[in-house]
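*Target chain*
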Amino acid sequence: MNKSFVSAVQDRNNADQLCVRARIKGDLEELFGPDIQVLETYDSDYRYRTFLPKSTVAETVAKNIQNIEYDNFKSSVDDHDRHNAYLDVWTAMYRYQHRQ
C-alpha cells in the first residue's frame, strides 16, 4: 500500500485469524483503523503486530484495491522516506527480474 507496508501470516493459535505485522509505527492503524489493538515487541523481526480475522484483512485489502486511483505507484507515495524505502525494494526486485 502506498501509505502502509504490512506482512500477513497465519495466526499460530487461531486458524481463522492472521497476524498482520508492520515495521513502521502507525502502518497497521493506517490500514485497519485507529481502534485495532497493536502490540509492540523488540524480540521479533516486525516490531508491530495485530491479530485480525482473515475476513477483516481480506475486506480491507480489497477495499484499498478498489480505491486505487493512481497509475504510477511510486509517484503516489507522499512520504519521502517511505518512497525511498519502496524504491530500494523496487530496485532489488528489478535486478532480480533481470537475473532470470
The chain has two domains: 1-68, 70-100. Helices lie at 27-32, 54-66, 80-97.
